[in-house]
Amino acid sequence: AKSEQRGSYRFFDEDMDERLQQRFVLEGEMRGAINSGQIRPYYQPLIDLRTRDVVGYEVLARWHHPEQGLLTADSFIPIAEETGLIGRLTYSLLRRSIQDIGIASDAPYLSINLSPRQFADSLLTTTIGGILAETRFPPERLQIEITETAMVTRIDEAKATLDQLHALGLRVALDDFGTGYAGLYHLRELKLDAMKIDRSYVAKIMRNPEELRIVEAMIRLGRALELQTTAEGIESQALAETLLALGCETGQGYLFGAPVPELPAIQTLPEKEAR
Ligand code: C2E
Ligand code: CA
Ligand code: CA
Ligand code: CA
Q: What are the residue boundaries of the EAL domain, all occurrences included (predicted)?
């Protein structure tokens, strides 16, 4: 029994070792990967559920790693946060995505994720404002997504940062709503513009009437607070239609498109004009 235990322990140990090693490697390579463009934006469309037009794109980070292939955000964002490279990473994604989408005022908006750590960065607003000025990107076409957990655990920093971002003219969305216990007070006090209902709730509503009522209540709450409501993780037509019927305005999910490395040339616009 003793050797068995030993065996499994060692196995676990090697596993840990490998993960730590990978982490160590990524940590060392990250700065170079940001500068060389190995880490870059992918875009996932945000859809008006009523008209099915693309109204915006969420910017999601991907790392084209020369040895490890395509890495999704979960495998390196935490490392970027811990090493303090998250600011650099975010600004690089913002610059690149503005370049990709262009500065036309009628094009879809960009929605970019901020990490809670960035609330502590005193240069955050100045840097974002600088990028907007330098690129002449219209501030009202930029939305910042901040998770509910981040807002609540760092409420004072969050409020100060949000006020500054609003002063620049940006929109702020509460990301992953339903996962972080933001109270009504927070929702009002932070003067948010939009609310994104987490995929974990959205996915279940077709199977479970209770879940459906919860999401319905979230959408009502959003509307009562005059927030634009977005549902994440829409994978079927039925789900899209149900959410629209519940009053949800915008949606995002594999039904409409997975994150892709290139923006489709804004081809929806002439089409719209022709209608
Ligand atoms: P998130 O902000 O909630 O982003 C949505 C995630 O759900 C994305 O995963 C997206 O690919 C995935 N997704 C979208 N539609 C569907 C769907 O219909 N079904 C399913 N199953 N999944 C869907 P991704 O890109 O792997 O990102 C994971 C998380 O990493 C993000 O969650 C966000 O919190 C974080 N993240 C991504 N990019 C950045 C970034 O540039 N900065 C920061 N700070 N965080 C980022
Ligand atoms: Ca997000
Ligand atoms: Ca989200
Ligand atoms: Ca999520």
A: 23-273
Complete DSSP assignment for 61-100: EEEEETTTEEE-GGGTHHHHHHHT-HHHHHHHHHHHHHHH
pLDDT tens digits, 90-101: 999 999 999 999
Strands 54-65 and 109-113 turn out to be parallel
β-partners of residue 143 are 111, 171
Please report the pLDDT score of residue 258 as a whole number: 97
CA dist., res. 115 & res. 17, Å (int): 27
Pocket test for ligand 1, best of 64, 81, 113 (most atoms within 8 A of CB): 113
Q: Categorize the per-residue pLDDT at 272 as very low, low, confident or very high, splitting at 50, 70 and 90.
A: very low
201 and 218 Cβ atoms separated by less than 8 Å: yes
Quote the pTM value.
0.91
| 3-class state of residue 58 by DSSP | strand
Token pair in block for residue 145? 């997504």
The ipTM is: 0.97
Whose CA is closest to atom 41 on ligand 1?
A: 61
CA of 60 to the centre of ligand 1 (A): 6
Q: Report helix angle 209-224 to 237-245, nearest 10.
A: 50
Q: How far is residue 94's CA from residue 112's CA, in Å, rounded to a whole number? A: 7
Q: Tell me, using a 6 A CB cutoff, whether residue 174 lines ligand 1.
A: no
Is residue 209 classed as helix, strand or coil in its secondary structure? helix
Q: Which amino acid is at 171?
A: R
Dist CA 155 CA 151 (whole Å)? 5
- Which contacts qualify for 198-201: CB closer than 8 Å, 24 or more apart? 198/232, 198/233, 199/232, 199/233, 199/253, 200/233
